């Protein structure tokens, strides 16, 4: 079996992204790097990815890099979604941020795991990418299978005790 001939759909998506023009500066910079290194763009990408993964294990700012990966692209994509006339992309990113917030609440307690699991930030980056990449739609999976049912249960509990949710309250001052 020739392993070089095996192609995954994600590889083609990556190749399309890397070779699509993202502006003159991007195109010129990558062309220059390709000429100097004599490597293809995807090889450069995989090399940089390997360096980031090594840094996530041994680097002193691994938590910052991990959080940057979890925030930077999703924040950019969220702004682009808000600007677009379609509401479907708004919903996609709102779901991501809801899942991300829920995960962040659990993540707060994981500092003690770092001593036993040195690959924690690598696993966290993989999880965050799984959540926001359109090929995986991980945030939608977690939202529909965990968060939405949990919120439904909380709403039912509040309603059974005649407690109205914050969105239904009138906070205007009355004189």
UniProtKB/TrEMBL annotation:
This is Receptor expression-enhancing protein. It comes from Mesorhabditis belari. It is a multi-pass membrane protein. It is found in: Membrane. The keyword Transmembrane helix applies. The chain crosses the membrane at residues 44-73, 116-133. The keyword ATP-binding does not apply. PANTHER family: HVA22-LIKE PROTEINS, RECEPTOR EXPRESSION-ENHANCING PROTEIN. Belongs to the DP1 family. One of its GO terms (cellular component) is membrane. Keywords: Membrane, Transmembrane, Transmembrane helix. InterPro entries: TB2_DP1_HVA22.
